[in-house]
Amino acid sequence: MPEGHTIHRRARDHTRWLAQDELVLTSPQGRFTAGARHLDGATLLQAHGIGKHLLYEFDRGWVHVHLGLFGRFRAWNTPAPTPRGAVRLRLQGPRKVVDLVGPTDCSVWDMDQVRALKQRLGPDPLDPEADPERMYAKIARSRRTIGALLMDQSVLAGIGNVYRAELLFRAGLSPFQPGNTVAQPLLEALWQDAVDLLEIGVRYNRIITMDPKEVGVPLHRMRRGDRVYVYKRKQCRRCHGRIATQTLDARVAYWCPSCQSEPA
DNA sequence: ATAATATGGTGAT
DNA sequence: TCACCCTATTATC
Q: b vs e for A100-120, b when ≥16 Cβ sit within 10 Å of the residue's Cβ?
């Protein structure tokens, strides 16, 4: 779940549920005790999603959360049950309680760290202010594969292994095409497609990349295991050919050799 | 029932 | 390149 769409969805939900109230912060698991105590009783102004990072802006400080592969949130209406499992952080508001479990990072940040993060990350398709020119420039002068570049958070923030596979399929591009050989209009199309797909992801709280017009099923009725063209599939959803897999930058890339052009 | 697997990033080697 | 984090989902028996 945790590619950019998940993060932005959580930011939106948590802002709606918890902002403008004084929150009780605890760390039932104990690994964030000092941080929780530091911000206990603070008022949440807003939760921000930036790429795959969550930033909780309080009236007197920031909390940074990165879910990694295993991190999850659980939410309840008050009163919430006793924390179950390794709850790193519990955010308790008057109406809702949110538990954070298994994150790669949960820590108190200052403004400098927030600024550094924003500087380090590439444009985020879910940020209305994002400037894709930075992504075009980086890809255009890189000999690394487009498959690796799309997953590089300093090139494009929020894309993970599923969206990588699906974006490349929809663009008809091989993951192994060097970045500096991808035509500019194709880069622009990739960006716009990322914007569209991630917005769908936020709205439906899941990754859906199949075109409703192509499959004749509306977005909200697409069944599990049938919402993507190539990711983790055996057969291409479009041509029914065999899906190829290969490790690319420590992650398994999925592509359809017949629908996606091979690099020259 | 139990086992395998994963959408990620970091830091050590 | 690999171990780690340590959950939820999916696959297998």
A: bbbbeebebbeeeebeebbee
How many angstroms separate the CA atoms of A149 and A137, rounded? 12
d(C-alpha A227, C-alpha A208), whole Å: 5
Parallel, antiparallel, or unpaired: how do β-strands A105-109 and A61-66 relate? Answer: antiparallel
With a 7 Å cutoff on the CB, does A72 touch strand B? no
Q: CA A214 – C1' C10 distance (Å)?
A: 27
Asked if the bond preceding A83 is cis, omega within 30° of 0, the reply is: no
B12 C1' to A153 CA distance, Å? 22
Q: Which of A170, A188, A177 is nearest to A145 (CA)?
A: A177
pLDDT digits (tens, 9 = 90+) for A114-168: 999 999 999 999 999 999 999 999 999 999 999 999 999 999 999 999 999 999 9
CA of A86 to C1' of B2 (A): 22
A27 touches strand B (CB under 7 A): no
